[in-house]
Amino acid sequence: MSRILTKQELHNLAMNIVGEELEKRGFEFIAINSKLGKHPQFVCIDKLNQRYFVIVKAIAHPDNPHNYDMVWMEAFKKHAREQEAKVFYAGVGLQNPENPTKPVFLNEAYAVEYAGLQVIETHLN
Known about the structure:
- By secondary structure, the chain is an alpha+beta fold.
- It has one domain (about 5-120): 3-Layer(aba) Sandwich (Trna Endonuclease, Chain: A, domain 1), CATH 3.40.1350.
- It has 2 helices and 6 strands.
- It has helices at about 5-25, 70-80; strands at about 30, 40-45, 50-60, 85-95, 110-115, 120.
- Strands 1, 2, 3, 4, 5 and 6 form a 6-stranded mixed sheet that branches.
- Strand 2 (about 40-45) and strand 3 form a beta hairpin.
- The longest helix has 18 residues, at about 5-25.
- This is Na(+)-translocating NADH-quinone reductase subunit F.
- It comes from Aquimarina amphilecti.
């Protein structure tokens, strides 16, 4: 019998998807925080030692995974500027492929809507 994935399990699934992209792009991981509600989820550096904070959000249907809380992001951008880091937002839409209004189940297929890393400009506003 299958069970519905918890919010933490959905978050971990989204983190795996984003982590794979970061690895493919050649980022080196400095820290990883998979605890739900803690930000950033990834702290990494590129080949030039530029620091990046990556915010990962698992988003369920019908919400748009490409949208984020603008007010909260302003506070986070301030933190990134203080740390001389750049920010990526990675919204990962996860849903049941047969019926988007149903939940995602453990060990069953799921559909992903992920447009990649969104650059968040920290110097604006």
